[in-house]
Specification:
Largest sheet: 8 strands, antiparallel
Structural class: alpha+beta
CATH class of the largest domain: Mainly Alpha
CATH architecture of the largest domain: Alpha/alpha barrel
Amino acid sequence: MVLSSVPAPGHPAEHPARRPSAGSGAPAVHGPRPGELPPVHDALLCVALPAFAISPEHGQLTGHGPEGVYASGRRLLSRSVLRVGGREPVPLQGRLAAADRAVFVGALRVPGDTGPDPGVTVERSRGADGSERITLRSAVPRPVRVPVEVALGTDLAELGAIASGHPRPELRPSVHGTGLRWTAPDGRSVAVTADPAPTDALAAVGVLRWETDLAPGTATTLHLRVRAERSPGVAAPAGGGRPGGHLLADARAEGDDHRTGALLRASVEDLRALLQRDPAHPADVHLAAGVPWRCGPATAEALWAARMALPLGTRLAAATLRALGRTQLAGGTESGRVPGPLRDAGPHLPPRCTGVEATLAFPVVLAEARRWGLPAAELEELLPVAERCLDWLRRGLDADGLLPDPAPGGPWRAETQAHAHRAALLGADLLDSCGRPGGEELRGAARTLRTRFRAEFWLDDLSGGRPAAARSAEGRSWPQFGGWAAHLLDTGLLDGGRYAQGLLDRTETEQLARLLGTPALDSGWGLRSLGAKEPGHNPFGHRAGAVRVHETAVAVAGLAAAGYEKEAVSLLRGLLDAAELFGHRLPEMYAGGQRTAGTRPVPHPAACRPAAIAAAGAVHALTALAGIRPDVPGRTVAVHPLASAPLGALRLSGLVVAGEPFAVRVSRLGLGMVEEAAESLQLGV
């Protein structure tokens, strides 16, 4: 069983979470209203899928809301309250030590202390799997004996039930070895064991107790381990265990702006923490969309994240493509399409189809993975799936050469046309390079789409015009402008490290860049999903004004590649500033309020953090500073850094091109130099 995927606002899950049926015994609680999720934006989430732990900043798991330790979509531990000497330690600090571990520091005074100084400090180190190390340190100038107790509890509830406000009643424990054990009516059970063994285990109240002697200046440590058990008749989780190998390179950044190193390091850690196995094919892994609510099967977001993480290696992209390829429809009018649910598209447009997005993304990711050095054997395996995606694209274009989303009634979205145009051009290049037919037909379709888009989607006005968000079959246009327009700048690499032609001409591209740099779109923290002056703008709306990290990263890279450094740098600085205030772990989105002196980015209450699309977006934005253009089939790699060197000197190392380590340095003068690359590659300018 994989982790449950719970629908967040605007993010319907691939498989809706199951909810308790009537009469299930779930307690009557005042949970979230329909469509509302319990907030976790102020919690510390340590993640190593399929396990994760949600902890408040003070570290005590009280059983309230979504707090607890989870594995494979089920809560293993909901309560873990530490008391020393009959009192809870005074919380001093809670922080993430790594993507999969949180540390909490507290203090307490012992009898006989004089003055305000605490004599004993308590440190709790909690892992994503629930393992915990409790260390007590004494600065008291005499030996002290302190009783320690941990009150534990669980409901073994599914994540979907907890998200909907209907958890199970807490189960009654029994003494089990050196700890406690809980068993649910369905036969599932979980055990907590302790080392050293507790002095006493009180099953009636779920408490483990120790009598601890502390000499002056010494420390003692208690270890707790949480382990899910399986009773006869209960199926084992499919594809359990952490993914093996090194799918993502240990990339590093260093330079004049220290934030680049911290952000890249945290993003790589989060991407690794979000890796999970394909349930039916445990050898393959992909990225979960985000924790805690979106840990379901691979979707279009997994493809986009794998694409933006290509500088870390091609293995993740290949595994994600295999996982999506196995879901491809065969036979009938929809043959070749990757299935996916409808997803909210904001206040102005009807829902869009994530399956259309994934189908168009598939050949793009495969083509670019080939440029970064995807092995020939994997390319041959995945190429037939990409061909079927491209066949579906050709059949799906209407008489005007545009692609409706969802088919067949549309509307015709600008973002979808950008995806289709890029897929056609990169797909044609891919087919030609692999000696397959169909490339010229795809290029012709791209030319027609480009012509129709400029005629039908560009809205002229006195300010220079703007692209429409969408059109209907009846000729209606949606003029609302937002971050979706960044995808019009996202083209992709062709043979020789060239960028594919975009949908817009040079004048229109210049106008689009100017619009993306205005305060209506650039919030100061990143790109708004809907302009601040547009009807229906809501700073917290995921498609109505919130900053979506994915769109901001796409805009940074697209603007930089098109030569509009001023606008790209403004968005990049905003993203870096926001990341620093989020502890370098970017959520998938945050409020798009205007930045002013003394303000901070405001978290979205339902946003996942960590999120694959945000972590990969940070990698994408940072590597755009160096402008790396690989063409491994052509045995070349070039760098085109931003001439203004907006962050000063920068060195990126530990990247992967052609399966070998790659490092590049950008000087304060904006000059790029490749320091390490595969011997088979010729360095270009």
